[in-house]
Amino acid sequence: MTKIGVLALQGAFREHVQMLRSLGAETREVRLAGELDGLDGLILPGGESTTMCRLMTDFDLWEPVRAFHTSGGALWGTCAGAILLANTVEGVSPHLGAQPSLAVLDVTIQRNAFGRQVDSFVADISVKGLEGCFPAVFIRAPVFTRVGPDVEVLADWEGQTVLVRQGRVLASSFHPELSEDARLHAVFFELCSKKQKTHMPV
Amino acid sequence: MTSQTGSPRVKEGFAEMFKGGVIMDVVTADQARIAEAAGATAVMALERVPADIRQDGGVARMSDPSMIKEIIAAVSIPVMAKVRIGHFVEAQILQAIGVDFIDESEVLTPADEQFHILKDGFTVPFVCGAKNLGEALRRVGEGASMIRTKGEAGTGNVIEAVRHARTVLGDIRAIQSRPAEELMTVARDLQAPYELVKYVHEHGKLPVVNFAAGGIATPADAALMMQLGLDGVFVGSGIFKSANPERRAQAIVKAVTHYQNPDILAEVSEDLGAPMTGINIDELIPEERLATRGW
Q1: Which residues participate directly in catalysis (chain B) (predicted)?
Q2: Among residues A25, A91, B29, B50, which is most buried (max CB within 10 A)?
């Protein structure tokens, strides 16, 4: 059975767990490195990326998650989670300096690219490979301002890239866990089930 | 393709992102930076923390917009700010300057002794305090996107926060056990909207995120509120009125993530320096109690 973990340091991890369970996946909340053992994939949820970075550092999670990916584990970051995956992060806090990241996805991501909370919005977007529209919830959302040559763009909104895939890494600037639509979770579930060990992580 | 701002999904969804996190009261940009570096999921910008409001007395109002803007510029995490109960013009001002969340708070002196703000009409989301389920559902009915237990702010004493959490969560369990045909009477008794009572009956939880607040001063206090079943915590005077705000802020953030892990809680509770002094709530005269504000 496919086992998918959800990073549960902070944020909307319960919603991801519920979505995955509705698809028949076995799930586990991950707060410490040891809890990655035996998983096929890991979701990094939305929340506050600065908070998650702080806790990733405090509880020594950066290297174990990177190693989990290198050994074949699929990753999916949503909103703040996508920021944790990116090679380069822009729009960081003025006093904190460069934000650490896993750097397993060859993109530059810009934090809070659409503005503050009063600018947050819901939009129907079209996603490559899915029939019909997907109801995307953008909350103080980031966008991918540069995508590397091996990164496939799966969706954009008004010219901004909002959903990408590189091998066994998926990243969305919106929150599929907040809509009733489980199709993107099904895409990730499939990615985890395939166990393609051939992908060379960046 | 069109997009929509300010919908309940966007406002309530934003509140979901704070879950498992700590929202910290700050009165200066420097404090906001300390809170962000410690891992706060948001900061609450205000002129005086509840402990000082208690001490100084006088009318407590919305903060100076220039001070809030300074805090917005200092950090990248969301910034919240407080308005007086019923003061919808203060709320309009905070929305205009781009505050991410408004707390219609009993900690400030109320502006209206009968009515709360109709929050539905705002693009910015609101959090409101509650002592029991009826109060929580009335606020959600007015459009609040997040609820926090009131506790007794500025006391460093967690007893009221525990009382309010147990009351709200106990009320929820009681409703779940009632047959559907009794729910209209339950709604009447709670003075809460029927549709929301039905939601609670069906889902066993509030329709929005439910945080703890008022009197949380230690990592153990924060973990206690999480184990009782709340989604996250607000810490007011507890951090910047303690001996070592930096360490205490970091420890409370870690305690909320690992609230079910006593080994980690023990580790993060060590060597934090003196907590805020605190006030025994039995010594407060009724007029000094903030939690009773709100209707």
Answers
A1: 82
A2: B50
Q: What is the mean pLDDT of residues A77-106?
A: 95
Question: What pLDDT, in 10s, does the model give residues B160-205?
Answer: 999 999 999 999 999 999 999 999 999 999 999 999 999 999 999 9
B120 half-sphere exposure, CB direction, 13 A CA radius: 5
Residues in chain A within 8 Å Cβ distance of B4: 121-123
Task: Check if the beta carbon of residue B5 is closer than 8 Å to that of residue B62.
Answer: no
Asked whether residue B201 is domain-assigned, the answer is no
Report the half-sphere exposure of B118 (CA within 13 A, side-chain side).
1
Task: Supply the pLDDT for residue A24.
Answer: 93
Query: How many CB atoms are located within 10 Å of the residue B136 CB?
Result: 30
A118 Cβ partners below 8 Å, 6+ apart?
Answer: B5, B6, B95, B98, B100, B123, B124
ipTM confidence score:
0.93
CA distance A150 to chain B (A): 28
Domain enclosing residue B107, as ranges: 21-175+211-288
Number of Cβ atoms within 10 Å of the Cβ of B95: 16
Mean pLDDT, chain A, integer: 94
* CA angle A84–A109–A10, rounded 5-degree value: 30
Is B235 among the domain residues? yes
Secondary structure (3-state) at A27 = strand
CA–CA distance, B191 with B197 (Å, rounded to integer): 10
- Check B2 against A80: CB less than 8 A apart: no
Cβ within 8 Å, pair A137-B16: no
Report d(CA A171, CA A80) in Å as an integer.
10
Model confidence, pTM: 0.95
Look at residue B203 and tell me if it is in a domain.
Answer: no
The mean pLDDT of B137-145, rounded to a whole number, is 98
> Taking chain A, what is the end-to-end CA distance rounded to the nearest angstrom?
27
The Cβ-side half-sphere exposure at A62, using a 13 Å CA radius, reads 12
- Closest B-chain CA to A177: B13
